[in-house]
């Protein structure tokens, strides 16, 4: 059965989607060098967005931890692992502000990859644990 998004839910999500699309278009124009900005401004924007991203990942980790604190032991352990991966990913963004890129040094790229693999593993285990019998 296909669930449709109600109009009210879509209206609530629309401002977020517009912001994401505008920022994505702006980033694409910068990447294609259609828009040119001074290097100092670009560096400050890079720092700002990395710190903002670190905050988002840390808050995501706190939310996951908070939501799983009263669950059964298996889900709580899974939630703690996912929360730790989110927080560590946020810390890696702070380190990225010092190095300038996510792929250099090599260990920062490996750190981020390990966090993503951990989160994907947590998602797979969560879907298997919470799946209803009978394939529903």
Note down, in words, how this protein is organized:
- The protein has 136 residues and is mostly helical.
- It folds into 2 domains: 36 residues; 93 residues.
- The chain contains 4 helices and no strands.
- Helix 2 packs antiparallel against helix 3.
- It starts with 6 loop residues before the first helix and ends in a 6-residue tail after the last helix.
- The relative contact order is 0.08.
Structure at a glance:
With 136 residues, the protein is mostly helical.
Overall 3D geometry? globular
Structural class label: mainly alpha
Radius of gyration: 19 Å
The total of beta strands comes to: 0
Q: Regions with pLDDT < 50 over 5+ consecutive residues?
A: none
Individual helix count: 4
Measured distance between first and last alpha carbons = 10 Å
Report strand %: under 5%
Order of secondary-structure elements: HHHH
Q: Please, how many domains?
A: 2
Helix fraction, binned, reads over 70%
Can you give the mean pLDDT? 86
Major β-sheet profile: none
Summarize the SSE layout with pairings:
Elements: H1 7-31, H2 39-68, H3 73-99, H4 106-130
Helix pairs in contact: 2-3, 3-4
What features would you highlight for this structure?
4 helices, 136 residues, mainly alpha, 2 domains, single chain
């Amino acid at each position: 059965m296909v669930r449709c998004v109600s109009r009210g839910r879509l209206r609530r999500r629309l401002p977020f989607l517009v912001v994401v699309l505008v920022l994505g278009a702006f980033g694409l124009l910068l990447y294609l060098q259609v828009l040119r900005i001074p290097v100092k401004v670009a560096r400050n924007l890079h720092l700002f967005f990395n710190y903002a991203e670190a905050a988002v990942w840390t808050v995501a980790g706190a939310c996951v931890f908070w939501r799983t604190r009263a669950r059964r032991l298996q889900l709580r352990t899974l939630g703690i692992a996912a929360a730790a991966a989110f927080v560590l990913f946020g810390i890696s963004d702070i380190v990225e502000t010092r190095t300038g890129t996510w792929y250099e040094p090599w260990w920062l790229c490996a750190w981020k990859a390990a966090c993503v693999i951990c989160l994907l593993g947590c998602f797979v285990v969560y879907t298997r644990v919470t799946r209803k019998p009978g394939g529903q």
